[in-house]
Design a protein that fits this description.
The chain is α+β, with helices and mostly antiparallel strands. The chain contains five helices and 19 strands.
């Protein structure tokens, strides 16, 4: 199970759409009324829903901490950094996480974005059975040095780009673990990080991050507020989707079934769409 497209509610679609195209580097795929899809290689990664009347997400509520766009190489990370600087946008952070190198920024309505590249898995290390991750300063000069050999001068995202993980503000870590690990079947990869859990499938460092940094017991924002409407988790097949539908029903979670998807909410009211390939 891996993350797919992330859908955001925005008040100013005509202002946000160019940001994801010019600063982030995604390609417009479709625009239909108040829905705009952006991505790479015809695959939507970001879905923007324009709702001018949508209220602002209150501070210290559950919701999106950041969405994370995974690029295939350090050179692609350097190109992303160059693009951000050229468009005059500011970084909110830049970190070396041992397993990855990451740039952080926010869109014009404050939605958090990470753009990162993974280090090879053979460079990852473990201690006491747990994957070692950290938050260290990123060598931005070293990243930009990758451009010295860049003859392509490519500006947009490469076709291999995808949503690498989604990081959520939640109300309670135990409830989040019971849902994402116990019910959906993710593995916890890191639990020693203060106020956070990281979960994945297939041994990846994390497809999901959950934290209580907005406050333990944080309430959800009003339905329809700006920010995260839902994120996709792509399951293996229809059989797995049917199994998850039964498990959700057995544990009291409401879910709306479509032909190849299942829409529900986690215990902190974060919306998610379980989707067959």
């Amino acid at each position: 199970m891996q993350p797919g497209a992330v859908r955001l509610i925005v008040a100013q679609l005509d202002a946000i759409h160019p940001f994801y195209e010019k600063t982030v580097g995604l390609r417009p795929i479709e625009r239909s009324g108040e829905l705009a899809l952006l991505g790479a290689d015809e695959r939507p990664l970001i879905e923007l829903v324009g709702r001018p009347e949508a209220p602002v997400r209150p501070r210290r509520t559950t919701g999106l901490f950041h969405l994370a766009i995974l690029v295939p190489s350090r050179l692609d990370l350097a190109r992303a950094l160059r693009r951000i600087l050229r468009t005059g946008w500011s970084l909110s952070g830049a970190s070396d996480h041992l397993v990855s190198e990451a740039l952080y920024l926010a869109d014009p309505e404050g939605n958090g974005i990470e753009i990162y590249r993974d280090r090879p898995r053979e460079e990852w290390s473990y201690a006491d059975g747990e994957l070692r991750m950290d938050t260290l300063p990123l060598d931005l000069k070293g990243v930009l040095g990758e451009l010295d050999a860049d003859g392509a001068r490519q500006d947009g995202m490469p076709p291999e780009v995808r949503i690498g993980h989604v990081h959520l503000n939640v109300a309670d870590l135990d409830e989040a673990e019971a849902f994402y690990r116990g019910l959906l079947g993710f593995d916890v990869t890191v639990r020693s990080y203060p106020g956070a859990l990281f979960l994945s499938t297939g041994g990846y460092h994390h497809h999901l991050g959950v934290n209580t940094w907005a406050g333990a017991g944080a309430p959800p924002p009003p339905r329809g507020a700006r920010g995260l409407e839902r994120f996709e988790l792509v399951v293996d097949d229809d059989r797995r989707l049917e199994e998850l539908e039964r498990r959700l029903a057995d544990t009291g979670f409401e879910a709306e079934r479509d032909a190849d998807s299942l829409q529900t909410r986690d215990p902190s009211e974060n919306g998610l769409l379980l989707k067959a390939p």
